[in-house]
Amino acid sequence: MARKARRRPHNMGTVYQRGPGNFWMAFRIHGRRRYWRGYATFEEADRARAKLAADRAAGNVGLPVEGPPVQSLDTHFRGLVQTPRKDASVG
User: Fold this and answer.
1) Number of domains in the chain
2) pLDDT value, residue 81
3) For the residues of the chain, what is the DSSP string, one character each?
4) What pLDDT shows up at residue 43?
5) For position 44, what pLDDT does the model report?
6) What is the pLDDT of residues 11-67, one digit of tens each?
7) Nearest by Cα to 27 from 42, 41, 16, 38
8) Would residue 82 count as lying in a domain?
9) Sheet with 14-17, side-by-side order of all strands
10) CA end-to-end distance (rounded Å), the chain
C-alpha cells in the first residue's frame, strides 16, 4: 500500500497543476494568498517555491504593507465640529 504524501509545514508554499504544462505556486504573504504561475514542469515550480521559502525565512520577500494615510482625530473632526456658540438660554 502506498504511503500518503506528507503535508508541508506552514509558510512553505504549495505547487499545483492548472493544465497541461502549466504549474502554479501559491504562498501566503502578510496574510494574503499570492500566486506565481507559468512554470512548465513541477520540478521547476518546486525549485522556485523552495527559493521563495528560503528568501522568506531570510526576510527578503515582499514590501511592507501600508494602509491608507490616517489623520489624527483632531484633524479629522476639526472640519466637522463648529466652534461653540454662547447659548442665549445659559447664564
Assistant:
1) 1
2) 66
3) -PPPPPPPPTTS-EEEE-STT-EEEEEEETTEEEEEEEESSHHHHHHHHHHHHHHHHHT-SS----------HHHHHHTTSPPPPPPTT--
4) 93
5) 93
6) 788 899 998 989 999 988 878 888 999 899 999 999 999 998 888 888 776 666 566
7) 16
8) no
9) 14-17, 23-29, 32-39
10) 92
Could you identify the residue written with the cell 527578503? 60
User: Could you tell me if residue 83 is inside a domain?
Assistant: no
Expressed as residue numbers, the domain containing 22 is: 1-61
Is residue 79, in this structure, part of any structural domain at all? no
pLDDT score at 25: 92
Domain CATH code at residue 5 = 3.30.160
**Contact assessment for residue 28 and residue 11, using Cβ atoms and an 8 Å cutoff:** yes
The reported pLDDT for the residue numbered 12 is 84
Question: For position 82, what pLDDT does the model report?
Answer: 64
Query: Would 37 be classed as within a structural domain?
Result: yes
